[in-house]
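Recall that a protein's primary structure is simply its ordered list of amino acids. Everything else, from secondary elements to tertiary packing, is in principle encoded there. The following example makes that idea concrete.
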Amino acid sequence: MNLASIGLEVTNPDQSVEIEGSSFGEFCLFLHAHASNLEMLVRVVEMENPDGSNTRLLSAQQAMTNMSNAVRNALHEHLRLAQEQGLRFAIKDGPRTAH
């Protein structure tokens, strides 16, 4: 998948983009939630089609797995780049919300 597949092209790819750290954090949260939801759907399909005999469900499961992996990889790459550019993260103590 690329931008051309949705009718877009970056005409100035060397242009830097700046966003506030809090907006970036919300974007990362969105990516995490998206990947988590896809992973949950993969588990549901695994329960409904444990032997893979329903090829349509198996195909959907594979597509969701691929998309989840792509989203997780994008999230990790965005976090790595942000850290390289000086954004710092702190691990918070306390209860966390389950996904």
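DSSP finds two helices and no strands in the chain. The mean pLDDT is 91.
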